[in-house]
Fold this protein.
Amino acid sequence: VAVHTLPEEQQAPLHMAYFEGLTHTEISERTGTPLGTVKTRIRTALIAVRRALEV
Amino acid sequence: MTMPGAFHIEEDDLIQYALGTLKEAQLGTMTAHISMCNTCRSELARIQVELACFAAVQPEEGELPADAKDRFMARLTSDAPATESKLGQFRDKSRVYLAGKAVNNWFASPMPLRILSGLLAAACVFLAYDDLSHIHENRQLLPEMKRLANETAELDELRDFLRGNNTQQVTLHVKPVLQKEPEGHAVYSAATGKLVFTASNMAELPDGKAYELWVLPAGGGAPVPAGTFVPDRQGNGAVIFPNIPTNVQASGFGITVEDAKGAATPTPPILLSGQ
């Protein structure tokens, strides 16, 4: 799974955390997404980066 | 924040730590743990790299060519196994580029600066060659240095031994031949005219010769013959109760070599004498 293949809503939490400095809880509150989902999406985005680096 | 099992920080917390979105209270505790835990520290480093890469593929629109993001993403998502490390290819190209850039800059610099840099480069080459020459010479001298070091160690050992207190020093000479001197012992009584004489270590005499004992009178006068003897193979000889007049006070005794039958007067030299 590569970063750009992830849907926008999957990449958005990491984007918000990195560029806007939002905590997981703040992202959850802003997007109305459960906190666990936010954490999962951020991990998934990073895994995509990791796999891209391993090529 | 939780540290289950082997007390490592969970990935979600490490991600937040890397993102800098942790609360102050958690930050101190996690920083302390990370400083002590190699596992968490390496995991954090990996996450930081991944975040940096994520940020790198998130450029603002319009800053890059329209297809730049697509090309970069294509690289990241490429499933084809790389025949050569992409990072290595990039590094090689960078080196060629930097080398070319350096050459171009050098040609573009003012002439005095080019001359100066050329001189400096030549000096560096000379110094490097000089250093290499010295290194080569030093390597050639190594065996000789080792040999000298060994000799020095042996000499030090020899010096310490000769100066040591726990040594026994003995001087050897030619072994002396113990030659026993001829010797005689007389027991004499003037009143009775009796005499016993023993001799030892006497030299062997020619045939027809004998030692003769003489009593030297105290009042002067001619020596009185007191018997003859021929020593045995061990050089021992004796005269026991010879025929001597009585009342002849003796001032001494002497031994000469005479004919085997004896003599009336002693024949010099006197070999043994005593008083």
In short: Chain A touches chain B at residues 2-5, 14-15, 17-19, 21-24, 26, 39, 42-43, 45-46, 49-50, 52-53, 55 (CB under 8 Å). Chain A has a mean pLDDT of 85. Chain A has three helices and no strands. The two ends of chain A are 12 Å apart (CA to CA).
